[in-house]
Amino acid sequence: MDIKQNICPKCGGPSEGGLCSSCRAAELEWITCDDRVLCTHCPTCGSLKQQNTWTDCKLEKDKLIDEVALSAVHIHEDVRSLSVSLETRDISPNRTSVNVGVKAKLYGVPVEHKCRVLIVWSKEQCDRCSRLSGGYYEGTIQLRADGRKPDDYEKDRANAIAHSAEDGLQETGERLSFITETRETKDGLDIIISSHNIGDIISRNIVKELGGKVTRHPKLVGEKKGIPVYRITYLVRLPKYQKGDVFEENGSYYEIRGTDSGGVKYFDLQDSSTKTTRNEPCGRLIGNVKDSEFAFVNYTEGNTAGILDPKTFENKECLTYPWLEIKEGSTIRFLRDYDNERIIFVG
Ligand SMILES: [Zn+2]
Ligand SMILES: [Zn+2]
Fold it and tell me: What's the rounded Cα separation, in Å, for the pair 252 and 270?
C-alpha cells in the first residue's frame, strides 16, 4: 500500500489522492461578485435594457433588485446546496446597495462568502416609448362600410379587436407592434399602427368577426439601410348589410343572419328557410332587429294578428307568417316598413 496516495500534499491530512477536499475548496475561486452593475430602464413603461435589447419587465421593484443583484454574482459549477441571502438598501434615488451572503457546499465542505453589489439605475427612453411619443407608424387601418357608415357597435368591436391583438403581440414580446393612435373620421374609424404584422392581424380579425373585405395598399415612403420602406393602408370595407338587418326584395322580407368572407346567410321571413348567397343581397333596407319595437298582441285570426301599436295605442291588423306562432296576450317584436306602410314581424 502506497501511503502517499492517502495524504494531502498541502495540509498532510487524509486525502483520496491529490489535495484533500478542504484544500481543494480553499484553493478554488468558487464565487466572484461584480462591484457595480448598471441597470438601464425606461422611466415611462419600466422596460429593461440588456445588451442593447429592450424587454418588458414583469417584476416588481423588489424582485427586480434581487434579480439584478444576483446577475452580478457568478458561482462555480461544482458548487452544491446553494443558499443566498440578500439585504438591500436604497442609498440614493439612483443607487441601491445589496449585501449578498452565500452559503454552499463545495466537495462536501461547507463554504461561505459575503460581498456587496452596487446597483446603478439609469433611465433611458426605450425603443417603444420613443416610437410611441414620436407618433411612429407603418400603416393605417381604415374601417369603412359599403354604402353606409360603420355604426357604433362595429367601431367599438374593431377597437376592441385591435387592442386585443396589440395585447397578444406585446405578450409574445413583439414590443414594436402597437397602436399609435385611433381616430374617428367622418366615414368610420382609422387605426394607426406601428408594424405591418399588427396591421395584418387586426384587419384579418375584424373581417373574420364583422364580415367584409380587406384590401392592402402599400406606398413606398423611403429606404432604410438599402431596404425599401413601405407604409400600408388596409382598407377594411364592411358589408352593406349587418347581422340582423331586414331587407325587402320583390315584396318579400329577409333577415341577415350572418356575413363573413364565405357569403351572406339570410333568413326568409315568409317561409322560415335559411339561405346563403355569395353575392350581396340587393334589396331595400328596412331596419335592424336590434332596433325593433315590441307590441302587445290583441288577437289572432287566420293569417292576421291585431296588435296594439306602441306609438299610437291603436289596434293594427297585420299579416303574419304561417311558421310564426303568435299568441293572444303575448308581445311580439316588429319593424316598420315605412315605404310600404307595413308592420314586419321579426319573431
Ligand atoms: Zn489538504
Ligand atoms: Zn418605455
Answer: 7
Segments making up each domain of the chain, as ranges: 32-123, 135-238, 241-279, 292-347
Q: Is 15 helix (H, G, I), strand (E, B) or coil?
A: coil
Residue with cell 491529490: 18
Please give the full DSSP string across 275-342, using - where no structure is assigned. Answer: EEESSPP--EEEEEGGG-EEEEEEEEETTEEEEE-TTT--EEEEE--TT----TT-EEEEEEETTTTE
Q: pTM to 2 decimals?
A: 0.70
Residue pLDDT, tens place only, 287-338: 999 889 999 999 998 889 999 999 999 999 998 888 888 889 999 999 999 8
**pLDDT reported for residue 84:** 95
Nearest to 275 by CA among 263, 292, 293: 263
Tell how far the Cα of 110 is from the centroid of ligand 1, in angstroms.
Answer: 15
- Span from the CA of 288 to the centroid of ligand 2 (angstroms): 45
Fold exhibited by the domain 292-347:
OB fold (Dihydrolipoamide Acetyltransferase, E2P) (2.40.50)
Give dist(CA 47, CA 57) in Å, integer.
5
- Residue 28's identity, in one-letter code, is L
Query: Residues with Cβ within 5 Å of ion ligand 1?
Result: 8, 10-11, 13, 20, 23
If you measure from the C-alpha of residue 6 to the centroid of ligand 1, how many angstroms do you get, rounded to a whole number?
Answer: 11
- Residue 262 predicted with pLDDT over 90: no
